[in-house]
Write a structure and sequence with these properties.
By secondary structure, the protein is mainly alpha-helical. The chain has 2 domains: 69-235, no CATH class; 247-386, Cytochrome Bc1 Complex, Chain D, domain 2 (Orthogonal Bundle). 52% of the residues lie in helices and 0% in strands. The chain has helices at 2-33, 35-61, 63-66, 92-112, 119-144, 148-152, 162-165, 172-182, 209-220, 230-235, 247-259, 271-278, 285-292, 324-330, 343-352, 376-386. α2 packs across α9 (209-220), α4 (92-112) packs antiparallel against α5 and α8 packs across α9. The longest helix is centred in the N-terminal third of the chain and has 32 residues, at 2-33. The chain is elongated, with a radius of gyration of 30 Å. The termini are far apart.
Length: 392
């Protein structure tokens, strides 16, 4: 009798132990299955909290220039809650057509400048160039007529991707964070009511890095992806301006006007015309060296700072300065894409139209408007200096 009771108790304990073990396994399995969802929920909660904190920081520190709704304030700062800032193109087909026509125009102008091009072919090229200009104008009119109010307010529908306009090759988040950390002190030249200051404590600002990240998340939270509407475009109070330093040019204009002088003309971007004109100008390599290294300004009062990207002995954002002309003569013009180019033609086009040909391994980070920042003499001086870099 006692033995049967003992056996029964043992069996009950075994049964309870088995059931407890199975129950524990079920609970662990359920927890494992739901871990992904739990982590996603936690991440969303953390992001929501970060965005909420970023909203408070934006209201206190940023709204006075970018507006309480993030759509900018005229004369103070650009809209960030904007399809322009996030690079949304309302007319991608028209943009592509105009870009294709513009690329064809570049190719035709290059062909026209070649000595092997016959007079008959040049005549045909001229006729096609007129057709292209007419087609581009018609496409622009078709598009711009639908967004006249935004265009009148400074919106450029042909350049809707802000990151591309800045030559930025990183992510949107990296642009926001970097700008918040370092600021844009030179923006005083195109935002007269105040430059973008550095906000990070590492650069003398008031915000910790976690607060910088909160602000970046809040700004990114405005991105509507493909859901932007024309109403969003029309709601923007201030569109971004290209970061061009106009103050030196204005000072030069005032100086020349006061002395009765003549304001120099920018060289422009008509490669064919510039090739012919620069041949009659004697370049000064010493002044070209000074222009290149930001020791003097261009005749239009612009700082070029070529050495900011082209370091002397090592590759940086752009190819190194040392051996530039040697590489042009022995590598660049041997590329089949540059058939019939002279070294001078290559250098000239690389300065005025840097996007036409990219050296493998490098991005197009040069300002796109060098033709408006320098004169014919400036260009000749730069080329004369670069020609002194004729050894590897």
């Amino acid at each position: 009798m006692f033995e049967r009771m003992l056996v029964g108790r043992i069996e009950n304990r075994v049964t309870i132990g088995v059931l407890a073990f199975v129950g524990m396994m079920v609970l662990l399995g359920w927890a494992a299955i739901n871990e992904g969802g739990r982590m996603q929920a936690f991440t969303k909660m953390e992001e929501a909290r970060s965005i909420e904190q970023g909203a408070a920081l934006f209201s206190i520190n940023c709204s006075r220039c970018h507006g309480t709704d993030g759509r900018g304030l005229a004369g103070f700062g650009p809209g960030l809650n904007s399809p322009q800032f996030f690079g949304y193109d309302f007319f991608p087909e028209i943009t592509k057509q105009i870009n294709d026509l513009s690329a064809e125009k570049v190719g035709l102008n290059a062909e026209k400048s070649l000595s092997a091009t016959t007079p008959e072919r040049k005549t045909a090229i001229d006729a096609r160039l007129v057709e292209i200009d007419t087609q581009i104008a018609e496409l622009a009119t078709q598009r711009n007529g639908q967004i006249t109010a935004a265009v009148d307010n400074g919106y450029d529908p042909q350049r809707p991707i802000r990151l591309n306009n800045l030559g930025w090759v990183g992510t949107q988040e990296a642009l926001i964070v970097t700008t918040l950390i370092h600021g844009r002190p030179t923006s005083i030249n195109y935002w007269p009511n105040g430059a973008m200051p550095a906000w990070s404590q590492t650069a003398g600002g008031p915000l910790r890095m976690d607060q910088i990240q909160d602000l970046a998340r809040y700004v990114q939270n405005w991105n509507k992806g493909d859901a932007w509407t024309l109403d969003d475009l029309f709601a923007v109070k201030q569109f971004a301006k290209e970061p061009v330093d106009g103050a030196p040019l204005m000072a030069l204009i005032e100086q020349l006007q006061a002395s009765g002088g003549v304001i120099p003309e920018p060289v422009g971007t008509d490669i064919t015309a510039v090739i012919e004109q620069v041949a009659s100008v004697t370049g000064d390599p010493v002044r070209g060296d000074q222009l290149y290294h930001n020791q003097v300004q261009s005749q239009l009062g612009q700082a070029l700072a070529c050495n900011g990207c082209h370091q002397q002995d090592v590759n940086g954002t752009g190819p190194m300065t040392k051996g530039t002309f040697f590489r042009v003569q022995n590598e660049r013009v041997n590329d089949p894409l540059l058939k019939d180019y002279t070294p001078e033609h290559y250098l000239l086009e690389s300065i005025l139209m840097p996007g036409n040909y990219l050296v493998p391994g490098f991005q197009n980070a040069m300002l796109p408007n060098f033709g408006e920042r320098i004169t014919l003499q400036d260009l000749a001086d730069l080329i004369a200096y670069i020609k002194t870099m004729d050894t590897p």
